Amino acid sequence: MSELIPAEIHLLLDSAGALIVFQEKGAAWAGVLAFTTEDKARDFCARSNLDAAEIGAIATGDREAVAALVSSIKRRAIRNLLLDLDYKTGRCTQIDFDGDAFGAATPRQFTPPAQH
Fold first, then answer.
1. Is the pLDDT of residue 1 over 60?
2. What domain range is 73 assigned to?
């Protein structure tokens, strides 16, 4: 596992308990929003006006939990985690899936929303 992947990640959940994802306009795939701290997750929600019902956490060293998470995610058009997506700048770390585990972690830059 990459050193860019923290020991624990925090995931945003909607009111039905589903993971909240981000899909760039025109992209075929989406990424699960994940954060290194609960504070960063709350900050993203505040900046983006996202109404996340809960923030859940998973230990990245728990292979069974990670395998279950990745397996459930891959059934949909989701191909990675977007770690610490900064709503203002569009910067984050993309963590790809390698089978039923986390794979390569690379810097990613999205187009940030227009500032008004």
1. no
2. 8-109
